[in-house]
Design a protein that fits this description.
Layout (H helix, E strand, L loop, with lengths): L4 H4 L11 H13 L4 E4 L2 E5 L11 H9 L10 H13 L7 E6 L6 H15 L9 H22 E2 L7 E2 L2 E8 L5 E9 L17 H9 L2 H6 L21 H11 L2 H16 L9 H14 L3 H9 E6 L2 E6 L2 H31 L8 E7 L11 H31 L13 H8 L5 H10 L6 H11 L6 E2 L8 E6 L2 E6 L3 H6 L4 H8 L4 H12 L4 H6 L2 H17 L2 E8 L12 H11 L1 H8 L5 E2 L1 H8 L4 H9 L4 H8 L1 E2 L8 E3 L2 H9 L5 E3 L3 H10 L1 E2 L20 E4 L5 E4 L18 E2 L1 H5 L5
Parallel strand pairs: 2-14, 3-10, 3-14, 18-21
Antiparallel strand pairs: 1-2, 4-5, 6-7, 6-10, 8-9, 11-12, 12-13, 15-22, 16-17, 17-19, 20-21
């Protein structure tokens, strides 16, 4: 069953009431039984076991779900979602692109889930029996999967809540050809947390790649990177922890090209740069590490030192050199490391895309996998957390608009008896963050464009004045440090104002860019020269703020999502300490309430699970009650009656066509004189209707495969005065193409009544 609480609790008479505690008990019982996936309406709930479960994701399991006529009859699994999206592309005359939206807080298992989805498609979509070079198939599968280790090495880090936390968002498009075979992929990334390179929060670590280098390097590599055994680096805290992934990283590098070795040399230069200390100009270690950094970055050491210790001020057409303070030197050093790493990461994404992306003429559809930051709330939150939580608000709004709101509006428009389910609409929170004319983002951008240093107290006073009418923001007037509090859909978060404007500016001194453009390192020279050619050099970087750039990229992502059929997976973190098989109710209930799981179940279970046949027949055919009573007496011979009388006249076909499938056949056979209103529009949906009918003129020779696999129309709707509306949409539950077990009980009618909008 797809409404998961029915799996645990016996059917109730009348309406079934679902409360958060009911859902919680269900999930806890399933988790204890090592059942980690649960269907909740249109959403799959995934509980993180925090331990390897190899048999759950084996190749045999993949094949089992892929080859099953009805995968929904199997136990809930991420492979069901993957297969449903894949069949939606394959089973339609005009394939619709699909998106798998994986959400959840940090440590809930989003990255692992995305990895499983990619492996599934690389297996079932590339392993085809069609005439194709097997080496080519293996190469496509390998290239797509091998991109994962390097992306995680450069973009993931160990945090307090997650040992493998993605510090960037990514949307992976798996490209399919006309035969729905995997021919390539592309990656779009969002908001890399580049500040982590030079500043790691307490008890957290830098990006994985740095630790993998220092722990896994050979003697030859250490010599090349000027990295002695046992050398400690200021930007690598907690380096005593276990490091994994270096072997996979090396395998990936060996398979594609040796240019990544040059990238590793640049990373080694960043580490040496981090050891430079400006506390004293006479400190010999400063010169030592500065010299090593300059050699690895292939820039003159004297010029590097000048760029870090002296800043250039423009007064009209004249330039004035001014020595930097110790604090300013450290800021410039951090800035240099961040801009190098950010541009290197951007180059890496482009490099991977060039390696795995298919030519545009060879693919026509895609399945997208979205893996973004989870909702974050730390002791200290700043611009990074504001952008991350803003992205989660946008995704929550997409879910609300696509399913919760749209589904209920459809019920109301069709005149169904429906008790409106309340859900949390986060539009007011989004208006606060990004709305016009005044919002948090607009005020930050205005402050960032002023040619003066920002004052946290002044900004807070202005925000309080301009945004006081929005109930989603508040201030603690007794706080020692200026901050503001935003009521997100997942909870309240306090954001520190100090430093937020400077982070939004993200200024890069021009002399640093000029230095890197003159580097003798071919890769470093290339990525910064290309930036100049794209008009995004230091001047451009100083004008385009962080929130503006992120907002634009997120809007582009949302446009893509709105053009696809989404499939939602909610990853749940059972405990905050990542302990294996540990279920803490307080931790889980907060996540369930934040992502609207209970509301989703309520809307999916719109009606009770059984209806009396007499009431059904009366609703469908008031004028044919005598005939309907005769039909009840002839239940054993129901199928012949359907074949004889279950027909419908379509305007574009002269002969009546016979309905295949019990639920619609029952309705039409019960009331042959009823009015049939087809809700299908367009050629694609009309063909979906045709697929559910036996066409006499075709004599069964013409078969149309639809997204409903082997079934026909998804639903029928009783309308006033005996009319019936036929729906061509996919039900979230299994189809009840069977005769009822009891004479007066139409089991499974609601399974036909509920749809998942395409």
């Amino acid at each position: 069953m797809h409404v998961f609480f029915l799996c645990i609790f016996p059917p109730c008479k009348g309406d079934i009431s679902v409360y958060p505690l009911v859902v919680l008990k269900c999930l806890q019982a399933r988790y204890s039984a090592k059942v980690f996936y649960t269907h909740a309406g249109c959403t799959l709930v995934a509980l993180n076991p925090f331990q390897p479960i190899p048999d759950l994701y084996s190749l045999d399991v993949m094949k089992e779900y892929h080859c099953a006529p009805q995968p929904q009859e199997f136990k809930p699994h991420i492979f069901i979602v993957a297969e449903e999206a894949y069949r939606n592309v394959r089973g339609q005359l005009v394939p619709v692109n699909q998106s798998l939206v994986v959400s959840g807080e940090s440590g809930a298992g989003k990255t692992w889930t995305s990895r499983c989805l990619m492996k599934y498609y690389a297996t079932v979509a590339a392993s085809s029996s069609v005439v194709k070079n097997q080496d080519t198939v293996e190469r496509i599968e390998r290239r797509v999967l091998d991109s994962n280790p390097i992306m995680e090495a450069f973009g993931n880090a160990c945090t307090l809540r997650n040992n493998n936390s993605s510090r960037f968002g990514k949307y992976i498009q798996l490209q399919l050809d006309r035969c729905q075979l995997l021919v390539g992929a592309s990656v779009q990334t969002y908001l890399l947390e580049k500040t982590r390179v030079a500043c790691q929060p307490a008890n957290e670590r830098n990006f994985h790649i740095f630790y993998q280098m220092t722990k896994g390097a050979t003697d030859e590599q250490r010599k090349e990177w000027k990295m002695s055994h046992g050398q400690r680096f200021a930007w690598l805290p907690n380096s005593e922890k276990t490091v994994e992934g270096w072997s996979l990283f090396l395998i990936f590098m060996h398979r594609i090209t040796f240019i990544l070795h040059i990238a590793l040399q640049i990373l080694a230069g960043i580490l040496q740069l981090g050891n430079v200390n400006f506390s004293s100009s006479s400190d010999e270690s400063q010169t030592y590490f500065l010299q090593r950094a300059a050699e690895l970055l292939c820039v003159p050491a004297e010029e590097l030192q000048t760029c870090l210790r002296v800043r250039m001020l423009k007064a009209g057409k004249q330039s004035v050199l001014k020595p930097c303070s110790q604090a300013e030197c450290s800021v410039r050093k951090d800035c240099l490391a961040k801009v190098i790493y950010a541009q290197l990461f951007e180059w890496l994404v482009t490099f991977i895309n060039n390696s795995i992306c298919a030519e545009e003429s060879t693919w026509c559809n895609f399945i997208g996998v979205l893996d973004v930051y989870g909702f974050e709330c730390f002791h200290i939150n700043n611009l990074e957390q504001l952008c991350i939580n803003y992205a989660n608000e946008k995704l929550q709004q997409h879910f609300v608009a696509h399913y919760l709101r749209a589904q209920q509006e459809e019920y109301v428009s069709e005149g169904l008896q429906w008790s409106f389910v309340k859900y949390q609409d986060n539009q007011s929170c989004l208006d606060l963050i990004e709305g016009s004319p005044v919002s948090v983002f607009s005020l930050l951008n205005e402050e960032s464009r002023l040619n003066r240093a920002s004052d946290a107290k002044t900004l807070r006073i202005r925000m309080e004045k301009e945004l006081c009418n929005n109930g989603n923001i508040s201030w603690d007037k007794f706080s020692k440090e200026p901050h503001f509090t935003v009521a997100h859909y997942a909870g309240k978060v306090n954001y520190r104002i100090q430093g937020i404007v400077e982070k939004n500016k993200d200024p890069v001194p021009p002399e640093l860019i000029n230095l890197l453009q003159k580097s003798d390192n071919p890769l470093l020279h290339q990525i910064f020269t290309d930036k100049e050619a794209d008009n995004t050099t230091c001047k451009g970087l100083s004008k385009v703020t962080v929130v503006s750039k992120f907002k634009n990229s997120l809007e582009s992502l949302m446009k893509i999502l709105h053009t696809t059929t989404p499939h939602y997976t909610r990853c749940i973190k059972p405990n905050p300490d990542c302990k294996p098989m540990t279920f803490e109710k307080e931790e889980v209930i907060m996540q369930l309430e934040a992502c609207g799981i209970v509301e989703t179940i309520h809307i999916s279970a719109a009606v009770s699970v059984s209806l009396f046949m007499q009431a059904l027949l009366k609703a469908l055919a008031e004028a044919e009650l005598d005939d309907a009573k005769d039909l009840q007496e002839d239940m054993p011979a129901l199928n012949p009656i359907i074949r004889e009388r279950g027909s419908v006249q379509l305007s574009n076909i002269q002969e009546p066509v016979t309905v295949r499938g019990w639920p619609m056949g029952l309705a039409l056979a019960s009331a042959p004189s009823i009015t049939v209103s087809l809700t299908a529009t367009g050629f694609q949906k009309m063909m979906s209707v045709m697929a559910s009918l036996n066409l006499p003129s075709r004599k069964g020779e013409y078969k149309v495969e639809t997204n409903q696999y082997t079934r026909g129309l998804a639903s029928i709707r009783a309308q006033p005065k005996g009319s019936v509306k036929l729906h061509c949409q996919r039900s979230p539950l299994l189809y009840a193409d069977r005769q009822p077990g009891k004479k007066c009980d139409v089991t499974g009618f609601n399974e036909i009544l509920l749809e998942k909008t395409l």
